[in-house]
Amino acid sequence: MSLETTMTTNPRVLHAASVFVENELLQLGAEHRPNGREVAAIGWLFRERPAEAHQKATSLAVSAVLGVERSMQAWLVAMHAAVQPNTEFVRRQKLWLSLSRGGLHVPGGRRTTEYEILANAGARWCGGLALEDEAEAIAEAARIVDAEAGSSIVMIERASESGLSSLLQHGWSIAPFGPPVETLAWVMGVNGLIFWPLGAFDDAESGGALLGAPDRLKVLFDSLNAT
Predict the structure, then answer these.
(1) At what angle do helices 50-68 and 135-147 cross, to 10 degrees?
(2) How far apart are CA 51 and CA 200, in angstroms?
(3) Residue 79 CA: distances (Å) to CA of 30, 75, 148, 170
């Protein structure tokens, strides 16, 4: 696949059967548990600077999933982290144009409607973008996720794409740790996967984790170990 890239270091690849109990990868609180369901994770961790590690882990995760799940599509679901002023200029820019004018390169691909989420005398704009399976597009999406807290990359069946609007038109809260509760719950509801970056400047390792149903991720993890 075109997502293959040359890695300067080999990551540690870890599997957590549950993210709600102590593990080496990612532990979330009970507020993240979607309707009582279990959530597992696969992680890719590098001893590199967080920005580079996030991009590499994102690429590896998307490549691993799309390499075996041909019916799935990767989406960037993004929202302004900061409340935008309530002005005509902001309403004309919406999401993608404002990110581009702010110095982020927005990859090409199919886009959903951009939704205005009213908040605190202003608004956040929210939208989805279908990612092409190219390394640069995935790297650009990873940079947007790093820049706009609460944004994430999800992988869902193409048959579930029409349901994205139910997530995007309401937006989501920005959790102090871990993916937005609303995004995780929606993704689990359609049996999809969500990628979440891990690690900050003072961590020994950085990268990211792919979250989803335990049975699906166990099969994927076993296939990674078999290659």
Answers:
(1) 130
(2) 9
(3) 24, 13, 7, 11
> What tokens were used for 146?
């790093």
Structural contact between residues 108 and 100, judged by C-beta atoms closer than 8 angstroms:
no
Distance between CA atoms of residues 158 and 227, nearest Å: 26
- Residue 41: helix, strand or coil by DSSP? strand
Amino acid at 75: W
- What pairs with residue 44 in β-bridges? 13, 208
As a whole number of angstroms, the distance between CA 83 and CA 219 comes to: 40
125 forms beta bridges with 116
Burial of 201 per CB tally in 10 Å (0-12, 13-18, 19+): exposed
- Tell me the per-residue pLDDT of 20-50, one tens digit each, with 9 for 90 and over: 999 999 999 999 998 889 999 999 999 999 9
Cα 60-70-72 angle, rounded to 5 deg? 75
pLDDT digits (tens, 9 = 90+) for 150-183: 999 999 999 999 999 999 999 999 888 899 999 9
DSSP state of 120: T
Q: Distance (Å, rounded) from C-alpha 39 to C-alpha 28? A: 10
